[in-house]
Specification:
Largest sheet: 3 strands, parallel
Shape: globular
Distance between the termini: 12 Å
Helix content: 25-40%
Radius of gyration: 14 Å
Length: 110
């Protein structure tokens, strides 16, 4: 469902798909579909916020289980300046991202 939604949106606007662990890097729709992509094996979301700042990202959708760590204070302004939406996995943890995202939706389990 998510894969198809991204494909539909890409017909109208360019969508960059990025993966993260302790680094951020682009991935293809094929990689997203297979679930096979590069990782460092850890999770440190500071790389996400830094990527958003360095690349002047205006809008982002973060798909995560939410366990990304406390958001450093230096990025608190991003909630006002960047449209960051969060799609949280079922049974995910929203407390870590609440301070930086404008909206969080939880994926349903079917």
């Amino acid at each position: 469902l998510l894969f198809n939604a991204i494909r539909i949106v890409q017909r109208k606007i360019p969508v960059d798909i990025m993966a993260f662990s302790t680094q951020v890097w682009p991935i293809s729709m094929s990689d997203l579909g297979t679930g096979v992509y590069q990782t460092t094996g850890g999770t440190d979301a500071e790389c996400i916020w830094q990527h958003i700042v360095e690349n002047q990202v205006l809008s982002a959708v973060l798909i995560t289980d939410g366990y990304v760590g406390k958001i450093p204070q230096k990025y608190s302004y991003l909630k006002r300046r960047v449209n960051i939406q969060c799609l949280l996995t079922a049974n995910g943890w929203s407390s870590d991202v609440d301070s930086i995202v404008r909206r969080t939706e939880v994926m349903s389990v079917s």
